Amino acid sequence: MSKQQRSPGLAWRLMRRMSTRVIRLVAAGRGPAKVVLVLTTTGRKSGLPRQTPLQYEQVGDDYYIASARGPQADWFRNLQVDPHVEVLLQGRCFAAQAQAVTDPVRIADFLALRLERHPRMVGLIMHLEGFPLRYTRLDLEKFAAGKALAVLHPLPQ
Predict the structure, then answer these.
(1) Residue 19 scores a pLDDT above 50
(2) Cα 149 to Cα 152: distance, rounded to the nearest angstrom
(3) What are phi and psi of 118, to 5 degrees?
(4) Which of 13, 16, 113, 140 is deepest in the core (most CB within 10 A)?
């Protein structure tokens, strides 16, 4: 059975169940609002709105979100088909244009920024995925290969 055909693992199912709760908390203005936004994409097959809570980093006026599952993540595949998205962040909702990024060098830059801003949390998450505690730039780029990133450019309102 190929990797994509396997049934989701326990961790994935738990995260999926927890996502619904996080979405409700962020929508109510509570929860991890300083690190999590809710991204609404249009389903590439169904055409229906799909909400996903994601950790983010703000860089200037843009918001960066990454996919640990790489370009296979449903939300990432959805925004590749339709880059017009909605973002719910700290009690406000706005439209944005998503830019898909799969270049390991750019993703490594983003990971370096995340490690600088949140060394313990992000370092632990990455370490659980096999990333070394002491690393080089080359390690970051190798780790970034197969990952995906989206830059959300807010649209004028």
Answers:
(1) yes
(2) 10
(3) -135, 65
(4) 140
